[in-house]
Design a protein that fits this description.
Layout (H helix, E strand, L loop, with lengths): L1 H12 L7 H4 L8 H14 L4 E8 L5 E7 L7 H7 L3 E5 L8 H14 L12 E5 L4 H4 L37 H13 L3 E7 L9 E6 L9 H17 L4 E2 L15 E2 L8 H6 L4 E7 L5 H38 L5 E8 L4 E14 L6 E18 L2 E8 L4 E4 L1 H13 L5 E3 L3 E16 L10 E14 L4 E4 L5 H8 L25 H14 L1 H10 L3 H4 L2 H9 L15 E3 L6 E3 L2
Parallel strand pairs: 3-4, 3-5, 5-9, 6-7, 8-12
Antiparallel strand pairs: 1-2, 2-4, 6-9, 10-13, 11-12, 14-18, 14-19, 15-18, 15-20, 16-17
Helix pairs in contact: 5-10, 8-10, 13-14
Length: 587
């Protein structure tokens, strides 16, 4: 009798099924990754035929990368979803594993949707794909002090991966194993909306969540009104729920100076929401405010994702129609110019921003100005907001496509496949083909590495030449839905190009030399017999910096020597106006 009573009490006190550690703790803690694994197995058992637990990759430390797929009618694979032409909302937590709101919000929201507690019927109109933790190894670097500028949970994961890479800088270069797995999974679903769930760093203020959406000010013009509509209706819903949403990331233009104001930013595709927009899909960056309590942040994240699911279930058919039209235009080859970088205009207007009283003064510790907030005293700041953007760099792309030589074909093919881009292979050599070659007149490396890479910026121009093409080369057509991403990756001046990330650095390093004692007599002979060179030399000597630089003076003659390296500073990828002959399937 006593045993039965004890068992009854234990069952009565047990948490409901699928309740997270976070909920059980009153939103003071978050669970470790084994909880994610356990819940991923438990959801399909609790809701058979409506949920699938996917393993889509393995981390460098050997942990499974997991996703939950949910729909009302068992549409739980990319193929089944494509057949039904149903919109997909793909949302992920823990790309920065200390910013873990999305994991706990997503589990609770999905459970309540599947049980009918909230958003009844929404999964009839949309398929939800949820990655609880993207940076799994970073999640397990668990500690109390990983986010000192964040209120809760008590312990959390680490910002970067076990390879010390920041996944939210890795979308374009796709270098980490985690990113390769995630992108291949994401492209298999062809998600209409891709939401990346974060927590801010930075100042203290009242607004509790920022939601950046593109296309709004960038991307295909036909999709921008839909992005604006999505944001406006989502914000109306959030405001009725007591939130104070922002359309921009709340980072001051000058560190620790609220008077400098804010700007609406359009990032390059190394970031998640810009990456989605490059494919004519809707990228959503969610940033809850780090100084809000964990329970409030999880609630804000949950409400944003719930709003996205509801709006896409309602409007997804129209959004997908517009997306397919943008894809079709790109597929037809009509896209001839691609904006690869954006900037803010000098125009601003004042906004009333709800912050707190603060003081700024000289620090006797650092010797610089520091700021002190008094969050017991709400204060409305009037600050400038720079919300107008314009293209900073636009590239004209070839009417045909890009050619990748066999020497780089293997690894570039892997990148293109990861990014869901189409390419073909040359099955036989092709002689005397008209191409464009990019020769850099200036190449500058970063003084220190960025994400483990020494980045490179170049200046130069494409030149028309005639070259033979080798069998095994790749042909990447610009007439494809992902044309914007093709330009971002393969145009050398693009800030997130493979060249910019340092994948072609060896081609910009001088490998062969001529000794000075050989150049000295050659210079004299050349000046004596070539009047044109003599005139160029005399003109260069009028430049004092050149005249005083022995290396520059000798380089003038090296560049005119028949033994010079004609491939130095030549980008190995070519452009062509027409597809070459002898192509076979690549992808």
């Amino acid at each position: 009798m006593l045993l039965a009573t004890a068992l009854s009490l234990a069952l009565a006190q047990a948490p409901p099924p699928l309740t997270t550690v976070s909920e059980q703790s009153g939103w003071t803690r978050t669970g470790r990754y084994p909880e994610v694994e356990s819940l991923c197995r438990a959801f399909p058992k609790a809701y058979p035929g409506k949920v699938r637990c996917d393993t889509f990759g393995t981390t460098p430390e050997g942990r499974p990368m997991l996703a939950l797929v949910a729909s009302a009618d068992g549409t739980l694979t990319p193929a089944a979803n494509s057949k039904k032409n149903r919109p997909v909302v793909f949302f992920q937590g823990g790309i920065h594993a200390g910013e873990i709101d999305g994991k706990d919000a997503g589990f609770a929201l999905l459970r309540d949707i599947l049980s009918g507690k909230t958003l009844p019927g929404v999964l009839k109109g949309v398929t939800a794909v949820f990655v609880p933790v993207f940076n799994v190894d970073g999640h397990e670097r668990f500690g109390h002090n990983n986010r000192p500028n964040q209120v809760g949970p008590e312990e959390m994961g680490w910002r970067v991966t076990s390879q010390n890479l920041n996944l939210n800088r890795d979308y374009a270069k796709a270098e980490s194993p985690e990113m390769v797995a995630l992108l291949r999974y994401l492209h298999s679903w062809d998600a209409l909306v891709y939401a990346d769930l974060h927590v801010t760093d930075g100042a203290k203020f009242e607004p509790d969540v920022a939601v950046g959406i593109e296309p709004q000010k960038s991307g295909p013009e036909s999709l921008r009104p839909l992005g604006v509509k999505l944001r406006q209706e989502l914000f109306q819903e959030l405001e009725t729920q007591g939130h104070q949403p922002l359309e921009f990331y709340p980072s001051f233009l000058q560190d620790d100076d609220p008077t400098s104001g804010f700007a609406y930013g359009v990032p390059p595709p190394r970031f998640s929401h810009a990456y989605a927009a490059a494919y004519h899909r809707f990228g959503v960056l969610v940033e809850t405010h780090s100084w809000k309590p964990y329970a409030e942040r999880v609630k804000a994240t949950r409400d944003v994702v719930a709003g996205l699911l509801r709006l896409v279930a309602r409007d997804g058919a129209g959004m997908m129609s517009a997306v397919k039209a943008a894809d079709a235009e790109a597929q037809s080859g009509k896209v001839r110019d691609v904006v690869v970088a954006w900037k803010n205009t000098p125009q601003s207007h004042p906004i009333a921003f709800r912050g707190y009283a603060y003081e700024r003064g000289a620090s006797d510790v650092s010797g610089q100005t520091w700021i002190r907030y008094d969050d017991s005293k709400p204060q409305v700041w009037t600050v400038p907001y720079f919300d107008k953007v314009e293209p900073a760099l636009t590239v004209s792309i070839p009417s045909g496509g890009y050619l990748v030589p066999p020497s780089h074909a293997a690894w570039v093919a892997q990148k293109l496949t990861t990014h869901g881009l189409r390419f073909q292979r040359l099955s036989r050599p092709t002689p005397a083909t008209d191409v464009e070659v990019f020769r850099a007149t200036e190449a500058k490396w970063s003084p220190q590495s960025n994400e483990g890479r020494q980045t490179l910026s170049v200046k130069g121009a494409w030149e028309k030449q005639t070259q033979s093409l080798s069998a095994g080369a790749l042909y990447v057509p610009t007439a494809q839905p992902g044309v914007e991403m093709v330009a971002h990756l393969l145009e050398p001046s693009a800030p997130d190009s493979l060249l910019a990330w340092g994948f072609f650095n060896a081609h910009f390093e001088q490998k062969e030399y001529i000794e000075d004692y050989v150049l000295e007599p050659f210079a004299r002979e050349l000046l004596a017999r070539d009047a044109t060179v003599k005139a160029e030399w005399d003109a260069k000597l009028k430049d004092p910096a050149f005249a005083k630089d022995p290396r520059a003076r000798l380089r003038f003659f090296y560049e005119r020597h028949p033994a010079r390296d004609t491939q130095h500073r030549v980008y190995p990828i070519l452009r062509t106006a027409t597809a070459p002959t002898g192509l076979t399937a690549g992808r």
